[in-house]
Structure formats: structure tokens, C-alpha cells
Amino acid sequence: MNLLIATATPVLIVIIYIYIKDKYEKESKRVLLVSFLLGAILSIVITTLLYLFFDLFLPLPDNYSIWQQFVKAFFVVALIEEFSKYIMVRYYAQPRKDFNEPFDGIIYAVMVSMGFAAVENLFYVLEGGLEVAAIRAITAIPAHATFAIIMGYYMGKAKFSNNRMKWNLIGLALAVLFHGAYDFFLFIGFIPGISIGAFISLIIGIILSKRAIKAHQEISYFKKIKK
């Protein structure tokens, strides 16, 4: 029970935080739950299948070079995971009529991402225990949230743009960039002190995420007062 609580608590905190930040036009709880479940089930399934594909047909050697760690971080882990979340937002949430303000891109992306993160977190915590849960609560879970906010910010712009593909792909690319940078510095942790790069990229991501939330809140506010 303690492990389940430790697994779920940071995810729940992120969800509540983002839900509160959606100040002006709350989304349907049912749709948010479906988004969460899509991340927890379909995104995990897609990610697992793509990982299996890479392991079978494009395997990396056991002793990775720094370049190979770079490829793994950006073009395997980050790209696969963020793409699996992206398509849930793109094909389930973004076409919906409920997606009626730019901030919705953030909240739907976060819900999908937290579904994914909850399942991933459960596997890690069951294997590593409460110590791993504590570490991931202040690292991996906030990281997944920041990747989602950045991607969702641009997917929110895309919904109301004449060039939807452009903004959607920018959102995906930036999520992959931050996710890849975070993982890369952790993957090459055998270089003394280099892991600090992961926390620097996370801090930058958090700063940009706060700005993204504020920017879309302002758009929602002006939209409300014009009604």
C-alpha cells in the first residue's frame, strides 16, 4: 500500500496543480480521465512495441559510447515516449469541441503524460522501493510534466492556427529535445559531475513551463472578458 501511495502521490499533485491552473473553462472530468487512461494504457503499449522493435531490428551494443548514448536518449527513448503521448493528444483531444482554448493543449497533454508516468513510475517503484519513489517524485515525474506542458503549449497554439501541423510538430520536437537532454546527461552519468546537466535541463524546462502556463492563462482571460 505504501508503495502505491508513493507512486501515485506525485502524479496526483501534478494533475491537481494543472487542473487548478485551468482557471476559466474547466474540462470535462470524464474526458480528462479518458486522456489519463490513454496515456496509461495505449501510450505504454505503443512505447513497449516500439522498444521491442528497436531491440530486435536496431539493437545497440552493450557498451554504449557517448555518441550511442546520445542516439539512445534522443532518438530512441525521448522520441518513442513523447511520440506515444503526442498521438493521444493529437487524435483524441485536439479534434474535440471541448478543446476550445489554447490552455486545453496543456491540460490534455499533462493528463496523457501523467497516465504514462504513473504506470512507468509503478514499475520503477515496485523494483526499487520507497527510495526510488522519493527520488522520482522530485525528478522523473516533474520532468514528464514539463515535457507535456511544453508540448501542450504548442498543441494549444496549433488548434487555433492556420498551420496546425507546424505548431504540433514544434511541440513534439521541443518535448523530445528536453526529454532527450534530460536522459542523455543521466545516461552518461559515468562521467563525474555530468549528471548535473539533467537537473539544469529540468530547471530550464520548469521555468519555460511556468511561462507557457501563464501565457495561455492570459489568452483564456482575455477570451473570457470579451464574451
Automatic annotation (TrEMBL):
Transmembrane segments: 5-20, 32-54, 66-84, 105-126, 132-155, 167-188, 194-213
Pfam family, one: PrsW-protease
Keywords for this protein: Cell membrane, Hydrolase, Membrane, Metalloprotease, Protease, Transmembrane, Transmembrane helix
Membrane topology (UniProt): Multi-pass membrane protein
Keyword Calcium in annotation: no
InterPro entries found in the cross-reference section: Peptidase_PrsW_arch/bac, PrsW
Keyword Membrane: yes
GO process terms (BP): proteolysis
GO molecular function, a single term: metallopeptidase activity
Any one GO cellular component localisation term in the record: plasma membrane
Subcellular localization: Cell membrane
Family: Belongs to the protease PrsW family.
Annotated protein name in UniProt: Protease PrsW
Organism classification: Bacteria, Pseudomonadati, Bacteroidota, Flavobacteriia, Flavobacteriales
